[in-house]
Amino acid sequence: MKSIGFIPLRSGSKGIPGKNKKKLLGRPLFCWTLGEAIASNLDEIYVYTDDADILSFIEKEYHWTTKVKAIKRSDASATDTASTELAMMEFVNSIDSAFDLFCLLQATSPFTTAVDINNCLDAVTNGMKYDSALTVVNSHRFTWHADGTPKNYDIFNRPRRQDFEGLLIENGACYVTTDSALRESQNRISGNIATVPMPEDSLTEIDSLTDWKIVEELLASRLKTKKQSNRITHLILDVDGVFTDGCIYYGADGELMKKFDMRDGMGLEILRQYGVEVMVMTSEDSQIVASRMKKLKIKDVYLGVKDKYSLLSRIVTDRNLSFSNIAYIGDDVNDMANICAAGWSFTPANATQPIKNHADVILQNNSAEGAIREATEFIIKYNNRYESL
User: Fold this and answer.
1) Quick one: which H or E segment has residue 193?
2) What integer pLDDT is reported at residue 227 of this predicted model?
């Protein structure tokens, strides 16, 4: 049974301009949903957008998977007044590939996980009792009519929270329907509908800057719950502002040099002798960086990476690791998700304040002035204590 995911994105957003590609914890908003869709049981995921930047970003960043396809949507389906269903049916009628299940995913719901997506798919496929499914949140709020009368409880017999069933509220995250039901109803859900619960924090959708701030804090908190005591087996480092002082020296012919610290290189060499693998990921694609990492004999070097959390998640999955096995050093907002998710996170003394707010350890040394060496010594001591327990 073939299942496809569908993520519609518009370039126009009045509430938050450029919302879908605005960075949430350092990665474009839509990447949170897309990354989980890739990790789910969906066979293919289509990003349907009129934004040329997003089309280009997906082509560059997601070349490593055959599951993701980016398609240009029409201007008519991307207006403020166009419905999501219009975009859905335009897409369905334009593709040649047949499918059995259609999964609509909303980029404004970054709390959606692969498990949530799979639960929706399973609800429709198991026993074929349901034609469609949607995600909901069980809210224990008391609701009222505008005329001052209660909707869902007796004001003279107020129930205790533990005795109150509450209300199921649609959170707009994930919808699954069969091909036949979709074509017949031309709607995201129809027929016999299953409800799939998600955590209460997923009820917050991003429609305003206030929502954005709330979601960012909740998402950072969720990532940090992955932290746990474990031996550090891998150290992953950013480059500019970590290995270097953050400055780039240009001449008439382009980039000339970057400043590195020899003590950092020795620290990494010693760390490898203690069995910790060293990896590098950076958003820059620099020959100078490539040459320096070759000199340091670092084999796993990822250049030009814009979605660092996606790469980190792949490394954890492909190498059968836990996030708690990872130590990460970063200095700026594009490192934010990794700083929150890694078992131990470090940042140089001269890093940006948002990163300092989330890092486990703010190093005493600046970047390119011994910060990495300081972190390697911390890791060696930590692992020695862990192994002695």
Assistant:
1) strand 193-197
2) 66
CATH 3.40.50.1000 at 234-385, yes or no: yes
Going by C-alpha positions, the residue among 353, 356, 354 that lies closest to residue 345 is 356
pLDDT per residue as tens digits for the range 187-225: 999 999 999 999 999 998 888 899 999 999 999 999 988
Burial class (CB in 10 A: 0-12, 13-18, 19+), 360: middle
Q: What are phi and psi of 146, to 5 degrees?
A: -65, -20
How far separated are the first and last CA of the chain, in Å rounded? 49
- Predicted TM-score (pTM) above 0.85: yes
Closest CA relative to residue 104, chosen from 207, 2, 8, 201: 8
Per-residue three-class SS string for 289-317: HHHHHHHCCCCEEECCCCCHHHHHHHHHH
Q: Are 206 and 110 in contact (CB under 8 A)?
A: yes
Q: Can you count the helices (H) and strands (E) in the chain?
A: 12, 17
In whole angstroms, give the CA distance from residue 174 to residue 102. Answer: 10
Is-contact 119 196, C-beta < 8 A? yes
Q: Identify whether the C-beta of residue 12 lies closer than 8 Å to the C-beta of residue 53.
A: no
CA separation for the pair 125, 100 (Å, rounded): 10
- State the residue for tokens 């005329």: 147
Only one residue has tokens 């293919």, namely 44
370 in Cβ contact with 263 (< 8 Å): yes
For the domain covering 3-226, report its CATH number: 3.90.550.10
Q: Do 325 and 304 form a contact (C-beta atoms < 8 A)?
A: no
Segments making up each domain of the chain, as ranges: 3-226, 234-385
Angle 262-273/371-388 helices, nearest 10 degrees? 20
Q: Three-state secondary structure along 9-51?
A: ECCCCCCCCCHHHCEECCEEHHHHHHHHHHHCCCCEEEEEECC
pLDDT one-digit tens code per residue, 308-328: 999 999 999 999 999 999 999
Place of tokens 């600046």: 366
**What's the rounded Cα separation, in Å, for the pair 169 and 208?**
20
How far apart, in whole angstroms, are the C-alpha atoms of residue 12 and residue 50?
Answer: 9
